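Troubleshooting: if your tokenizer reports a length mismatch, compare your output against this known-good record of 322 residues.
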Amino acid sequence: MVAVVASPGGDVMPRGDASLRRVVALLPVGAMALGLLLPPLAAAAAVLAPPLLALTTLLGVLALPARGWKDGQSLPLREGLGQPLLLALCLGLGAPALAWSMAEVSGAEAPLGIAAALAAAAPAGAGAIGLAAALGLDGRRSLLGVVASTAAAPVLLPVVAMLLGAGGVLAPEALAGRLWMLTALPALLALPLRRWPPLSGVGARRGCAGLTVVALSVTAMGRMSGLAPLLLGDPAGTLRLLGLACLPGLAGTVAVLLAQRGRRVPDALLMGGYRNVTLVWVACGAALPPQANLLLALTALPVFATPALAALWMRLARRPVI
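Known-good structure output:
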């Protein structure tokens, strides 16, 4: 048996209430629209992207409920270790293969197929932890998926790049260092902070979940920087790239659903659709051609629309069948 460590004491945070779910559904999408309408505001938010990514990880771990899985019970070895390992392999290898195949079927040029596959190989975004808590889902499941895929990314991403003939695009050591600074270090910092009394209550953790959504929304606004002129300059070409930019999230969601045997669709949407493509985008730098870089930039639209899709699915699932 593998125990999942949790803070002592405290109660499990109640399921996300309607107001918090509405914030999750609307705020990131509204922030993206604002970033497109006000380019200077998007440019200012883009400067804050690295610290906001780290803050999102910190707040997401702080937002997790106090108790362990199933009222503090241990996880079976298969679920405690095997499931995150399977998720890491599905996201790191299965999703890129699916995205590349779909891009090939659509007739996309080779650099665009490579960009779609690299985006699909990105680890699950750390913001999925706080989003799961805000939606009333079990954030620890997202935490295990994020940790596993993030730990595997420095190995699997360069492997995917090499298999696609772009082996020089990603430097494993640079990628590992950036992952450590943006995800591992804030998560480790959050662990002792969870024991601090002002941050250990249900209200404080619910507040951290809400602040996670705010930080993600500002990040989403920053990812819109520079996209407005491209959308206006070549609407048809950009819409085609946007369709390709949806492939990584679609492939990731399918991969997670397969790993989970079709269960927990909202969790699959968050872990498979909400991906840290920003990390891949930054790590690739100028190694990819302009169109491929634009595709990576456009993945921000489906990525930050993922929380709204998860909230919509949960709302539809609660409706009685007539």
